[in-house]
Amino acid sequence: MKLRSVLVVLLVLAAASVCVRLGFWQLSRWHEKRALNRALARALAAPPRELGAKPHPEADVPGSRIEARGRYDESRQVLLGARPHMGEPGVEVVTPLLLEGGSSAVLVNRGWLYAADAATARPQESPEPGPQRVVGLAEPLGRGLAGPALRTVEHDSVTLYSARRLDWDTLSRRMPYALAPYVLRQTPGPGVPARPLRIYPRAANEAMHLSYTVQWFAFAAILLGGSSMLAWSRRGTSRGT
User: Fold this and answer.
1) d(Cα 64, Cα 44) in Å, to the nearest integer?
2) Fewer beta carbons within 10 angstroms: which end of the chain, N or C?
3) CB atoms within 10 A of CB 206
4) Per-residue pLDDT tens for 22-39?
5) What is the DSSP letter of 116?
């Protein structure tokens, strides 16, 4: 076999190997997304775990459906910017819930509000005074995340913190009470106000990874099959001459 032919074979095998590896990687991503979606479905269907005056440990909560009771501290709220919904710009409103019978609080993502600039809104126009029963999914809070500092806005005796994401270390220094190391994303349900808009967590897109898996394996098959057919054709031609 000529050196040129050997190099072509090695190149085809290397390219096919890369395609196969990418196919298996997409397949593993599909399994991960499928497991996440199943865990989300189980959490939404499970009865909520009651949160007492002292929050559960961090490792015991993320992904769980939690019920918490207390009163919102609406004098301090966080606006998470750049949160579009159905093609509309907006923010998500995060408010501390002071837990009954204790000196601790848990952050509650109360949902989405329209914001033309995707950064500023007035959650004080959608108050939720008095005792509250909040049911939602617990999500871990980041710690020590890099990025811009919180932007503070004082308005109508309300301190609004504008941020792109939540960070426990940054927020805990600004709150006069202990914060749980997770946030509750409140889900829709009976008695839940229409504003801010509560939204169920989105399921991960499984089909995309499965489609990519098929594509990469198909590319590998085309490379191997096509090159084999081409080599066979050339071999037959050379024999006939």
Assistant:
1) 9
2) C
3) 17
4) 999 999 999 988 888 888
5) T
